[in-house]
Amino acid sequence: MSFLAAMSVASVVMLASLPPCLAAEGGAPCAGLELGPRGVVTAVRDGDTVMLDSGEMIRLIGIQAPKLPLGRPDFEPWPLAGESKSALEALTLGQSAVLYYGPTRRDRHDRVLGHLVLAETGQWVQAEMIGAGMARVYSFPDNRVCLAQLLDVERDARLARLGLWNDPYYELRDARHPDTLLPLEGRYELVEGRVLKAERVGRRVYLNFGRVWKDDFTVVIETAGLRQFEKSGLDPLAFDDKVVRVRGWMNVLDGPRMEVTHPEQIELLTGRL
């Protein structure tokens, strides 16, 4: 049982099926996006990347699907990676779609970054993949639009144990057991627990989830991340004694730790900031 369930933060509502996630009025999934080109999906690379008939490769921002090797030697596919790709193919292949840009339009691989809406049905592709349990919410400091809506969709899929949420590989981790987090180094994880102490040390803020900081799980917010919190009007020190869910890449340095670069990586589960 996850920490969230143990703390009875939310009740589980089992859903027989999920309704289509339609784009908001006017076509865009949410405010803050800019209309981009329209095209037909001609290929699907994996569960979060498609190609349009223009030849542009589109990385669907706001989500992360289970990863495939894609030519990388000795890379083990994540569980349900094939199923995620198949789900995206069934949803989009051959469909006319409209692209909506976020603040950053291309990544270092020269892929176009955006949200994709099917022209005929109005289905928001990112929300459909998350709602089916075929992807998780995933974000960067420079592309944070629509995350609140996607987190809501992810919550419903997780509570219904759809797709990857029914696989132990993706289960919510408990911050109270750092020994179970150590083997997860290098993986993208969701961890829940109570922040026992939030403190600023020099130019960093540490959220400590245990009393022995060299062994217990810790969240680190560096200077650039603190600027993002400040712009959002949030003080990470206010997470002191709060139950939270944090998502990011797990690393190990004086115990398991995770770097947070923007506020949306932390969800408050109890109380108020």
Protein model, in words:
The protein is α+β, with helices and mostly antiparallel strands and 273 residues long. The protein has 2 domains: 34-165, OB fold (Dihydrolipoamide Acetyltransferase, E2P) (Beta Barrel), CATH 2.40.50.90; 172-268, Nucleic acid-binding proteins (OB fold (Dihydrolipoamide Acetyltransferase, E2P)), CATH 2.40.50. It is 18% helix and 30% strand. It has 6 helices and 15 strands. The chain has helices at residues 3-6, 81-92, 125-131, 147-159, 178-181, 223-231; strands spanning 34-46, 49-52, 57-60, 63-64, 96-106, 112-118, 136-137, 173-174, 188-194, 197-201, 204-208, 218-221, 243-252, 256-259, 266-268. The strands form 3 sheets. Strands 8, 9, 10, 11, 12, 13, 14 and 15 form an 8-stranded mixed sheet that branches. Strands 1-2-3-6-5 form a 5-stranded mixed barrel. A hairpin with a 2-residue loop joins strand 1 and strand 2. Mean pLDDT is 90; it is low at 1-20.
Summarize the helices and strands and which ones pair or pack.
Blueprint: H1 3-6, E1 34-46, E2 49-52, E3 57-60, E4 63-64, H2 81-92, E5 96-106, E6 112-118, H3 125-131, E7 136-137, H4 147-159, E8 173-174, H5 178-181, E9 188-194, E10 197-201, E11 204-208, E12 218-221, H6 223-231, E13 243-252, E14 256-259, E15 266-268
Helix pairs in contact: 3-4
Summarize the structure.
The protein is of the alpha+beta class and 273 residues long. It has helices at residues 3-6, 81-92, 125-131, 147-159, 178-181, 223-231, and strands spanning 34-46, 49-52, 57-60, 63-64, 96-106, 112-118, 136-137, 173-174, 188-194, 197-201, 204-208, 218-221, 243-252, 256-259, 266-268. The chain has two domains: 34-165, OB fold (Dihydrolipoamide Acetyltransferase, E2P) (Beta Barrel), CATH 2.40.50.90; 172-268, Nucleic acid-binding proteins (OB fold (Dihydrolipoamide Acetyltransferase, E2P)).
